[in-house]
Amino acid sequence: MKPFARLVAVLVPLALLTASCVGPTDNTQLIVNTNDCTGCSQCEEVCPYGAVEVIDGNAVIDPALCHFCYRCVEVCPEGAIH
Amino acid sequence: MKHLIILIALLVPSACMSVTLDGWMDYQTGGDSLSPLPGRLELGGMLSGNSWTFVLDERYSHRDSTGITPRVLGSYSVTDADLAIEAGPVTLNPDVRWTVDLGEIPEMVLPDAAGAAFRRGSIRPGLTLRGSLAGSVELFASGRYLNRDLEQADGYDLDWAETRLEGGASWATPWGPTLTVAGLGRNIRSDFIGYDVSWSRIDLGLGLAKDGLPLDLQVQGEISYSIYDGTDYTDRDIADRLTGRVRLTRMVIPSYLTVNTTFEAVFDVDGDDFRTACTSGEARVLYRLPITTVVPSTVSLTGKLALSSIRTSWLELFTRVNVWRGLSLLADARLRETPTDVQLAGPYRQRLTFGPGLEYRFGEQVRLWGLVEQERTNLQEVEVWWRMRAGLELYPGTLSF
Question: Which of A81, B215, B286, B398 is 20 to 30 A off residue B116, Cα-Cα?
Answer without folding.
Answer: A81
